[in-house]
Amino acid sequence: MPARRTTTALAAATAASAAIGAALLAAPAAYADAPGDNGTVKIHDSVTDEADTRNEPHVCTFYLDTFTFDAAQDAQWRIVAWAPTGDKQTEVAGGTITLDAEGHGRTEDMGLADGHYKLYWNFDGEKGAAKHKVFWVECGTPSESPSPTPTDTASPYANSVGADGSTDTATAAATGGGALLAAAGGYWLLRRRGAAAGARH
């Protein structure tokens, strides 16, 4: 009779131990899949496909993309200007979104001034802190080449001014040429007279 009681007690203890072990093994999995906390949010360049699960911390125009949250879950997000270019307090963008049946969602494309930012993503049913991401907006401002300063090129001929105030470059050129010819003729005449006088002496 005592042996039978001992066997029964051992069987009961073994069953209890198995039950406790199963519960302990299941606990981490249940915690990991707690409603609301099993999703992730990514920063995506505006040209990146929604199915891409990479995070892109350096963008210009961008959107927020989520994966594996609960079906039809409501989320709220905000973006704060972050150090070293921000004060960690100024909110520069924010909004709400309802995810689809697969826990996926995508915001509209958006743009911010170049700088460092931090995203906070809160959602219904969250058990811990908000999801967050830090990222840089780096669009850059294209440098503008200075316009060349126009320079005035002086005409080789002075403009002649008519009675009505109009100018005539051709006339001025002709007048200038005539003056040169007259001067050359006078010089030649003087040389001829000097030569003749010398011959008489």
From TrEMBL:
Keywords: Signal. Residues 141-162 are annotated as: Disordered. Residues 1-32 form the signal peptide. InterPro entries: TAT_signal. It comes from the Bacteria. This is LPXTG cell wall anchor domain-containing protein. It comes from Streptomyces polyrhachis. The lineage of its organism: Bacteria, Bacillati, Actinomycetota, Actinomycetes, Kitasatosporales.
